């Protein structure tokens, strides 16, 4: 795609980043000068998956363009041109959470809870409208000034009413167990992935690691160490049941909603009242 300098009316001005699904370029609206981002889907994905995948991308554009929330980077347009498929998206000048992890940034518990509550608010908004993300991971969470978090790349969003059946999509380590076993998934796949993100924020380590096959086996059959154990901190104990509930292998044992997850997280963050002194 290096030889392509524009798609539709949008110039490709510089590389922002590359991911498993596509390459993201800086752009701008030539009519208004508004900064934008253009995600160009990898050509091999289009070649290997054919019309079903193109239909999925159109579904994303339809789903994400209807989401208007400060915690969600909106998809503005979907197009196909020059044997390429692309999405025009709102631009954020922030840094992905993955980049923070790569730099070994340590997150305090209040900061981790602040970022997570924003994520869960955005997910609940999308879920209330019948849309779940299906690829929540640190690379898709953009953190800008004053720790404002926005969810990027509804690249494999699934409309609740969609008839399209898809194979396993997502990123190993964040894919919920049921996604390996069935196409019949719901919003709880995002709850699971958000639980993985919270685990990393609290412990500085992912709950599942290794090769994709090893990760799949661990996700489907193993319970990771509690955050207080992995993070070597007794101060994390109030968060242990919250995180492990979010990471439950059975969807029915997980939080039923992002809102329920948020409530439990805030309760764990609240200071424990001291026992009243006897007179």
Identify the notable features of this structure and list them briefly:
279 residues; alpha+beta; Phosphorylase Kinase, domain 1; Transferase(Phosphotransferase), domain 1; 2 domains; 5-stranded antiparallel β-sheet; 3-stranded antiparallel β-sheet; 9 helices; 35% helix; 18% strand; globular; disordered C terminus
General description of the model:
- The chain has 9 helices and 12 strands.
- With 279 residues, it is an alpha+beta fold.
- The chain folds into 2 domains: 6-90, 2-Layer Sandwich (Phosphorylase Kinase, domain 1), CATH 3.30.200.20; 95-269, Orthogonal Bundle (Transferase(Phosphotransferase), domain 1), CATH 1.10.510.10.
- The strands form 4 sheets. Strands 3-4-5-7-6 form a 5-stranded antiparallel sheet. Strands 8-10-11 form a 3-stranded antiparallel sheet.
- Helix 4 (109-128) packs antiparallel against helix 5, helix 4 (109-128) packs antiparallel against helix 9 (258-269) and helix 5 (188-203) runs antiparallel to helix 8 (240-246).
- The longest helix has 20 residues, at 109-128.
- The termini are far apart.
- Residues 275-279 have low confidence and may be disordered.
């Amino acid at each position: 795609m290096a030889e392509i300098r524009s798609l539709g009316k949008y110039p490709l001005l510089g590389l922002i980043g590359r991911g498993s699904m596509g390459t993201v370029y800086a752009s701008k609206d030539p009519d208004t000068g508004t900064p934008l981002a253009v995600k160009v889907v990898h050509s091999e994905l289009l070649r290997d998956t054919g019309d079903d995948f193109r239909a999925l991308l159109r579904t994303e554009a339809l789903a994400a363009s209807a989401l208007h929330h400060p915690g969600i980077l909106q998809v503005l347009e979907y197009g196909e041109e020059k044997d390429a498929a692309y999405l025009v998206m709102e631009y954020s000048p922030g840094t992905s959470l993955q980049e923070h992890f790569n730099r070994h940034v340590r997150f305090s518990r209040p900061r981790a809870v602040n970022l997570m509550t924003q994520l869960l608010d955005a997910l609940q908004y999308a879920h209330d409208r019948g849309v779940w993300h299906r690829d929540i991971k640190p690379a898709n969470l953009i953190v800008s000034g004053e720790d404002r978090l926005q969810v990027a790349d509804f690249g494999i969003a699934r409309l609740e009413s969609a008839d399209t059946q898809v194979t396993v999509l997502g990123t190993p380590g964040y894919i919920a167990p049921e996604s390996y076993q069935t196409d019949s998934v719901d919003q709880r796949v995002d709850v699971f992935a958000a639980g993985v993100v919270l685990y990393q924020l609290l412990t500085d380590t992912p709950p599942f690691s290794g090769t994709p096959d090893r990760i799949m086996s661990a996700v489907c059959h193993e319970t990771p160490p509690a955050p207080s154990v992995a993070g070597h901190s007794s101060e994390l104990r109030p968060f242990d049941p919250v995180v492990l509930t979010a990471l439950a292998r059975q969807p029915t044992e997980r939080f039923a909603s992002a809102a329920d997850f948020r409530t439990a997280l805030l309760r764990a963050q609240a200071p424990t009242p001291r026992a009243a002194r006897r007179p």
